[in-house]
Amino acid sequence: MKLSKRFQAFTRLIQSPMAKEHYAYFQPIDRSFGTEVEVHGQRLIMAGSNDYLGLTHDPRVQEAAIQAIKRWGTGPGGSRFLSGNMTLHEELEARLAAFVGKKHVVVHTTGFLTNLGAISSLMQKDDVILFDKENHASIQEGCNNTGARIMYFEHNSRDSAERRLAQARESHPDSVCFLITEGVFSMSGDVANMPELIKIKRANPDLVFYLDDAHGLGVLGRGRGTAQHFGVAQDVDFIMGTFSKAMASTGGFIASDHEDALTYVKNNSKTLIFSAALAAANAATVLECLNILEAEPERVDRLWEITRKIRTGYREIGLEFGDNESPIIPIYVGDEFKALRISKELFKRGVFALPAIYPAVPKGKALIRTAYMSTHTDAQLDVVLTALGELAREFGIRVQDTQAAQAPVRDDNAGAMAAASS
Ligand SMILES: Cc1ncc(COP(=O)(O)O)c(C=O)c1O
């Protein structure tokens, strides 16, 4: 088969007039002002960023990055294993360990590479992995890479995870068993059911608990993450986090009290050994974010104030949305093209929010992923709510619209006949 044939179906799909009109992704942001961005010359309120604390534009953070560039240069010049390891990385690892409540940390270049490298180093092909069905693609890729038996459990369900564990014990009695969940799920915004899931760990101390807290860090537990929010950090064996969300940078880390396991990861993670180190500016950014978070935890409080305001607003509009405890608030639309069209209309009304469609979410379960930042002003939030209110009516996506569409059609003749016969 020729290489060009391989892509024909996708090329046809993406170049169809329908797709050309509605394709929503790879929007070229020409400039960012934090809570606002400029796209094709239009200024838009950003309502889909993971920069939850709005620190990417904090002057102290930017200055820390500039100073790091002056001291270490713009690029690392090699992997950490060879010529790219900086004292800055080691300082960051020590600070992060204390922040998330673990003894040791290993920093990687991105969150994706952290999951891929750490999971591939920690898990082996005769292991069993209990895997929440909604876990992120980077976790899936890491697990696939190990060749271990992956057993999926129903999203956030302790019962389902326990059933899987019992099956694993039966079929693989000698295997090491891992349980992997996210702290805050990236699409739904659901917070992990840690109080219940951790009971499984407490009843089975040899179960290895791995928590991907990409979206919990900086957000829950006054910024210290999901495990600390629920007071269970000591029960979680591995906490993975990213710098690409609330930490205003890129990069990722794995934290644990198991020193030997992390020393192994540090010396065996292919994505650490064979990939360039985290650039100095990115590492310094995270260190300054940690300084700010420790000094100004009220930034997180403002995020919650905003989240509450938005939830109330969505409820008043009648939107069907992910009613959870995080600043990721998906608006459920269902139909893929409707979601694409609503997103486009939001842009016209000055709001940047993108749809998630199949395969990112199940078929027919398209959503608009909205996410908020602690630096959004009330005026900006009002613009977003007004735009969503108008579009929800126009596109018939309010709960009352869906209920009306599902209600049985009243047969007035039948009523009249019944009255006549009585
Ligand atoms: C749950 C989760 N884990 C890992 C990652 C990967 O992180 P990064 O973007 O830093 O590579 C993401 C980001 O999309 C995520 O949402």
UniProtKB/TrEMBL annotation:
Name used for this protein in its record: Putative 8-amino-7-oxononanoate synthase
Stored Gene3D superfamilies: Aspartate Aminotransferase, domain 1, Type I PLP-dependent aspartate aminotransferase-like (Major domain)
Pfam family, one: Aminotran_1_2
UniProt-recorded Gene Ontology molecular function terms: pyridoxal phosphate binding; transferase activity
Domain Aminotransferase class I/classII large, chain residue ranges per copy: 48-388
Sorted UniProt keywords: Transferase
Cofactor (UniProt): pyridoxal 5'-phosphate
Record's keyword annotation contains Endoplasmic reticulum: no
SUPFAM superfamilies: PLP-dependent transferases
Domain of life: Bacteria
